[in-house]
Amino acid sequence: MARKFAALGARTVLGDLDSDAVRAVADEVGGIAVPGDAASEQGVAELVDAAMGEHGRIDVFCANAGIGRNGGPEADEDAWAASWEVNVMSHVRAARAVLPHWLERGEGHFLGTASAAGLLTMLGSAPYSVTKHAAVAFAEYLNITYADKGVTAQALCPQGVRTQLLEASGETGRILMGATAIEATDVAEMVAEKLGGEEFLILPHPEVADYYALRAGQPERWQAGMRKLQRKVE
């Protein structure tokens, strides 16, 4: 997304735990690197301060950090806590930091990277499924609450994308998403096309809309299909 936005003329401020990687991409796109933890209040504050100090305003905030932890109720406390902090609270803290600026200006846009798991579920990972549902719900809350004041939000909900996160999902991820996984550049192209538009959900895999409708309208049928997949994974 940083590369795509920069190609369209955006001035970027990039945050990541991997200081070498974020500096390399920032150098490539002519942006500013802010190494640190985007899930923490300090990390968010450093990102926002860097953007405001350099550019005087923030037009779009992309809450894109995410982690996947496997397991169900038996997953340990650390797995649940880390998933909550990164997949949900990073979005909350980002919104808390930028909203005063946006409301004063009367404009701003929040893009929350969730997942198709936030609309459906991810087999083998309750922490991921639960927190991605929460990420979608938070973006929806923002859009409902602030759109009439000029501040809008969208939720980005892909299925498999060929990144380190997909690789880390192991055999389960390969079975569920390997055949339909797309490149990060494909996601970035769609984001650039849909960003700021009327569609709340940005769905790089369009079939997710059909799955989501089936889940809502026929939950028993949807769950039966998912149980079949669960048996395949097992």
UniProtKB/TrEMBL annotation:
GO molecular function, one term: oxidoreductase activity
Domain of life: Bacteria
Matches recorded under SUPFAM superfamilies: NAD(P)-binding Rossmann-fold domains
Keyword Oxidoreductase on entry: yes
Keyword Cell membrane on entry: no
Keyword terms: Oxidoreductase
Family, similarity comment: Belongs to the short-chain dehydrogenases/reductases (SDR) family.
Name by which UniProt lists this protein: SDR family oxidoreductase
Lineage of producing organism: Bacteria, Bacillati, Actinomycetota, Actinomycetes, Pseudonocardiales
